[in-house]
Amino acid sequence: MQRVGIDIGGTFTDLVGFRDGAIVIGKTSTTVDEPTRGVADSLIAADTDIPALAELLHGSTIAINTVLERTGALTALVTTKGFRDVYAIGRNNRPEAFNLNFRRPRPLIPRELSFELDERMNAAGEVLRPLDEGEIARVGKLLIEAGVDSVAICLLHAYANPAHERLTAEILEQSCPGLFITSSHEILREYREYERTSTTALNAYVGPRVRAYLDRLGGFLDERQFQGGIQIMRSNGGTMSLGQAREQPVSMMESGPVAGMIAAGRIATLLDLGQCIGFDMGGTTAKSSLIVDGAPEIRDGYHIGGYASGQPMQLPVVDIVEIGAGGGSIAWCDAHGGLHVGPESAGADPGPACYGKGGADPVMTDADLVLGRLNAGRFLSGRMALDASLSEAAIRERIADPLGLGVNDAAAGIARITDAAMSLAVRSVSVERGYDPRDCTLIAFGGAGPLHAVSIAREIHVPRVVVPLYPGNFSALGMLLAAWRQDFVQTLVSDLVDVDPAAALAAFESLRTAARARMAEEGLDPTPAVYQFAADLRYRGQEHTIPVPVGAAGDLEGGGSAGLRAQFDLLHERRYGHAAPDETIQMVNLRLTLELARDGGGADADWLSAPYAPDDAQPDQIRLVVYDDPETPIDARIVWRPGLAAGSVIEGPAVIEEPNSTTLLFPGDIARITEHGHIDIAIAPAPGEEDRT
Amino acid sequence: MTVHPITLEVVRNGLVACAEDMATALCKSAYNMMIYEVRDYCCGLIDTEGRMVSQNAGGLPIFLADLGAAVLDGIERYGLDGFEPGDVIIMNHAYICGQHLNNIVIYTPCFFEGRVVAFAANRAHWVDVGGTRVGFGSYGTNEIFQEGLQFRSLKLYEAGKRSEAIWQILEDNLRFPESSLGDLRAQMASCRMGERRITELFSRYGADTVRDCVERIWDQAEAEVREIVSGFPDGVYKAASRLDNDGRNLDVPLDIKVTVTIEGSTMTVDYSDMNPQVPTPLNSGYSGGLAAARVAFKCLTQPDAPVNEGGFRPLTLISPEGTLVNARPPAAIGLWSIALPTVIDTILKALAPALPDRIPAAHKGDMGGCSFYGYREGDGKRFLLMNIFGGGWGGRPTGDGESAAVSICQGDVRNVPIEVQETNFPFLIERFALRQDSGGAGEHRGGLGVEITYRCLQATVANINMERILEAPWGLYGGAPARVNKAIIRRADGTEREVAKETNIQLEAGDLVIFLTAGGGGYGEAAARDPAKIEADLRAGLISAQAAADDYGFVPAGKAAP
């Protein structure tokens, strides 16, 4: 099986693939002006035989960058009469409560390109005012006059009955050739008109640009006799076909960061870890995500560009908490003696002071170097020598002297503040979901993740840390493991005890039909498809729902709902610390998640769970490393990871080094190399904790 | 004792995270939209002297003042030794809390090494607390006893054991017990979350260190704020504005008069000239006036920093008893917050000469909302629909005012989606739009208000509490005032009337209720506005051709002057 994944990030284009059972890894610089060339470059750099490829997986930041840079198409909105301002009004809120200069989200569609249709449905999907074809033709003329490239159609209550949206799209398709048309019901069958409008507008806005990009990519591969399938990474942690990505580019917004969490999920399954936290720390940010039973948590939307002024996107997205703390985060002092780290980052240029490129600001990496935790000679496999004296000077000047601390003390402080901030983020993904960190395993990856993972684990009492193989390229590897995935949702509001069996059956059937249609459209064999249904439930009166798995329509009927109710009470108790077994439960949405595993299923076998053969061993070294007491560094064992055989055991204080990453062990921590080559660390219990069972 | 700067930073972040975790627990599992949409709540940690250690961001700004005062009353009543693990205290006493009785404070003691070290507290708006009005305050009450139940620092749970007497009183006296008791459970869970977090912090760093950190955090915040206020020019600044009336004496406007003194690094807000308290529920207790002063102060000093006690030390309040913002018992206070946006705007207006590059023109100036209730035809169930509307904000030194935003007293407060309202309540919403020409003209135009039209699908009852329909949101530096709030009832038979302050308005199927919210005032002379911006506003329909000509003297290219 020949398969490659290509992830285009802001700085680097990563390629990872399997070729004849071996892993291929490549990194090239992202070509900002012509990203398809980046794909071409990386394929060539990795010496890929394009006609022999069975599949190409692709993640890209093009969709999200189009939104953040506001470089999308001239787009119009078509909506129900009386409601063209829903999009501009939003939710009226001001998250920055005390900021007199607050900014509300700026719509991607100007008001003068928002057009109204004289039509109306009610919440039950009944037509109150029919839609006349002449009315659509009138709006079609306005669209042509305005010269728009794209249109978002979002009519009130279209989630309940999409007939008017369908008719509008059909007629506009005929009368406005070349127009990129997005209908809200195709994107999201959920109530809440502002969020649905915004999601639809996002799709319409990025559509023409992303479609052109994907077409260039397809064309490029066609010319080179590519015979395989192209799959695009989507925010929900799965993939979709190129064809679907052309229609629904909004679902590839978070195409990049999710892949690492998918891979972490597979590690969790391999090692039989029920509750894990994936932790990914790179140069500028750290990300964490809860992983239960091998699957990263999914949330039903987020705001692109931040909550206060961003654009709501109400589609399933892997639930990742991100904070601005990474290896390149700058440490600084405020005027009142407060020490802070980040969110400013030194980036790659000038980079940390120790790079010797003229950076005067000390960053996290400088502190790690001063503390003896990083090896100045082995950074990026020794391709880049680091100068610890520059780190020391920067820390002394900017932090230690102003605060009246020693250099080691200041460096340890930078590490502690960073670790504490990341600990809060890591803890919040577990605690907010009702999981105790003491019952979780941390799976650490990203260039800087393994270096800080153990400190974080100690801070929040996580007893076990796993550092997988290739932690520095882990995210790209995740792409090769992702399943083809589709999410469907249908709003169906009813008290659980009163669910109308016919309506429930119809809703299930409509979800199944949509699923089958999608597979047929993509030419996929439906036999191995896994259907997972869930009902969004809440106590009547609440707003926020919890998805509870259901098997079939019958489970929702009065008689059969007792199990569902018990499960909901339990989940509510776990997540929020209280439950109300006597209160009415309301259903809001039905959901269907459809997954098809990558054919061949060889990805896991090929590397995650393949027997592990080490490289040649290198002799251990000894180095002074600062742990808890900054003034008393202690001798730590320095180990070369690629030379460690399966079954090796390393006891801290130790530093495990490898080409693109470093793992730090505290005194008493015990690391074992698993049969597959992953590092499995038992964290030494803190004093007084030994007796917790 | 000096605290290690690193420990200080870690504890600082830990305290903020603690309040945020409490807020998440409350908001996500609450039962009424006043909490999960309107965010009418706050969560925080209070020390053993009733001082605010940390508070969540994102709740209502006007909850800045007195969570501590509510807890202090319990400390005085029981003594610190009088609390046991498992206690849950309920508190909404009108004049200690200073706000309407719907705002229920729940708190629990946090123990470390056998002693109370702090309290985890939250306040949330219950949809109903009994009394003569459905929901919360409306005109017609004149003393507190008509406005619902009061609980003064009562132990709802004692060492983990529920007081069945209090519980029964709640069940029997609330109109929507299912909702309120659900909120109560969410509030208690939020407190337990706070207890766990704060105990973790104490066991990690020790009681003395945490206390020292808290003192340092307050001192730092104070120092930072003093430095900012020192940059304000010294002086005595006065401003006045008016509310329409008290709802009973309809032709007597109420005077909102403030004196703000900047002296060195301190600011004093003086309400001595404020309108006397009124015989209707438009009053607040002391904390209402304090909250208004604090919101204005926070906006001008550290809008982005977490809230704590220290940041308010440079602020002094002079608030004599017997005024609209510090009413004597047994005044009614059901609409305690209605006056506050105007009070805050007036404080800002007073400082405009001192801080010309910071102060915006006036915003819409009311809390903006509606409330409909009744019994559903069909199943006979009681319903209560509440919604919040935004309006315009004033033009600012940096640019045009924002449109359709909630008041300065409300932060992350969200309206209820139309599709959600129509799914849950017997109404059809016919229009929800920006209100053309509602923003005051100016070099920087005021933001626009909104219009929303409700069609009743069955018999229902409305309470309408419109304020500031007479005094328009003012402009600054020559900017024009904005259009004012308006509510119109258009009956199915075609008759129509404007409504300002009325309670229990009977509506029938087919009747329309139309709300038009105010815009924001203009900033700077209209004549100075960039013609390209006028043209863009015209193109977008934010202003009409008539207004462009009348307010700006603007004639589109190619057209003759009128």
Key structural traits:
heterodimer; A: 693 residues; alpha+beta; nine-stranded mixed beta sheet; 17 helices; 26% strand; globular; B: 562 residues; five-stranded antiparallel beta sheet
Gist?
With 693 residues, chain A is an alpha+beta fold. Chain A has 17 helices and 35 strands.
What's the helix and strand layout?
The complex is a heterodimer of chains A (693) and B (562).
Chain A: E1 3-8, E2 12-19, E3 22-29, H1 35-45, E4 55-60, H2 62-68, E5 75-80, H3 86-89, E6 114-117, E7 120-121, E8 127-129, H4 133-146, E9 150-154, H5 163-175, E10 180-183, H6 184-187, H7 193-223, E11 229-233, E12 239-241, H8 242-247, H9 258-270, E13 275-281, E14 286-292, E15 295-296, E16 298-299, E17 302-304, E18 311-313, E19 317-318, E20 321-323, E21 329-333, E22 339-345, H10 364-370, H11 388-403, H12 407-431, E23 441-445, H13 449-460, E24 464-467, H14 474-479, E25 484-495, H15 501-521, E26 530-539, E27 546-550, H16 562-576, E28 585-596, H17 602-608, E29 621-625, E30 634-640, E31 649-651, E32 654-658, E33 661-665, E34 670-673, E35 679-682
Helix pairs in contact in A: 1-7, 2-7, 4-5, 10-11, 10-12, 11-12, 12-13
Chain B: H1 5-29, H2 33-36, E1 41-46, E2 52-55, H3 67-78, E3 88-91, H4 94-97, E4 103-112, E5 115-125, E6 154-158, E7 161-162, H5 164-173, H6 177-205, H7 207-230, E8 235-243, E9 254-263, E10 266-270, H8 286-300, E11 315-318, H9 340-351, E12 369-375, E13 382-388, H10 418-424, E14 427-434, E15 450-456, E16 460-465, E17 486-490, E18 496-498, E19 501-507, E20 512-516, H11 531-540, H12 545-552
Parallel strand pairs in B: 10-11
Antiparallel strand pairs in B: 1-2, 1-5, 3-4, 3-6, 4-5, 6-7, 8-9, 9-10, 12-13, 12-16, 14-15, 15-20, 16-19, 17-18, 17-20
